[in-house]
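Appendix B, example 12.
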Amino acid sequence: MDLPANRGRWRRRSARSHLPLVVAALLLLIPASLLFSSAYSSVLRSLFPFSASGRGVPPRCGASRELQGERFLWYAPHSGFSNQVGELRNAAVVAALLNRTLIVPPVLDHHAVVLGSCPKFRVSDPTALRAAVWDHVMQLLREKRYVSMGDVVDLSPIKSVVRTIDFRVFISLWCGVDMTKTCFSGVCCSVSGGSSSSDDYNRCRSMLTGLGGSEKGCVYPVQDDCRTTVWTYQEDLDGALDQFQPDEELKMRKKISYVRRRRDIYKALGPGSAAEDATLLAFGTLFSGPYKGSESYFDIHESPKDQRIQSVLEKIEFLPFAPEIMAAGKEFARNKIKEPYLCAQLRLLDGQFKNHWKATFSALKEKLKAIESEMKGSKASGPVQIFIMTDLPQVNWTNTYLADVAKNGRYKLYTLKESDELVLQTAERLMTAEHGIQSGFLPKIMESSKKGCDPVQLPEILLYIEESVCSCASLGFVGTAGSTIAGSIETMRKNNVCKL
């Protein structure tokens, strides 16, 4: 809005004419402000939840009546999909242990957010991780590519032990911002509306990431990371030194002065702690992995003295894909391959795996020799059916062992592409089902009629369907050593998810 032409002159005259009065008022207010500074500050925060400078001081929480009395847990997923699933499982344990509602995030692009290396004590700060996740989620929103982890992963096994809320629902209610551009179908559009002001999004970013700091009753940002902490659920070991520590050379080179301690997460963040009253408990990473006899960050694998948590640990040990994905894998196995087959997962281009082609191909060669030997013993005839899932495009198979296998009449290969009709149809069925929204908390005020909205793009789900196909391979499975994808498939096969 344009200011009146005389406004500047009026303000200058006013300042001069009332200067003695202003000085007197300030002199009277100073003692009162010192006496009642705490109460005065609280009143100001309740009346003006954000600073005039727009720097993102967190507002009072629970603006929506729907969320009053609820306490939530948020974390920063990162890296590849399998790592993100691992974090989701750990987050479910923490949410159950601390009696908080788990905010289920979207699936992030592969390595769009990276942690670093816990063993090398070189990781992103938890606040920076949370900010990077928020910024990437906003990118997914703008590009209409949002898909929830709850859409892809079946959360029904933990529904009885862990309360969940979809990120879109939480953000629209907690921050009052518009998340409808992350929706594919009507229920999501009905519960994800709000303001589209950029200031509101910025304030929400500040709250969710903890950039505005900690505020009692609102946000408690967890700043402990894997350089200093291994979370446990063992009060008797709280504060004990962890087995894995930075060596002296690393301490000198990186100027590391800290040590890693094992900390009881319930004692640190549960009843009686500074975090207990916060509406939102915001972690950085919750990913963990074994390293030199220890865990990199999260070491809660059993709880024999607490049967409720033990039940959660058992239920999250394996979280299957959504029914639509599993059905697509079975359909491809039954109707396309038809006969018993081997699955070969060959990770050849990503990260460290581009340097280990020889070992990856050697494992496949040995597996094929074993199958052919068994077939000779049983006098079976015909080619060996092989389903190949690999990140190496087929046009680049030339002069590789894959090209040799493809040309060999003893083998018949099958692959899937993102553009295949089965994949596209499954993606549409998956998004229409709205598992992510439907599996968690929904506002009681949700409109009875579904809103129409401009749907997001269909997600890329080829990887998930390929894993499902591999879970059905009756001749066995051979995967790239060290690949989390191979580990995921092994877990699926161990749990017998495919019954043709």
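The radius of gyration is 27 Å. The longest strand covers residues 384-390.
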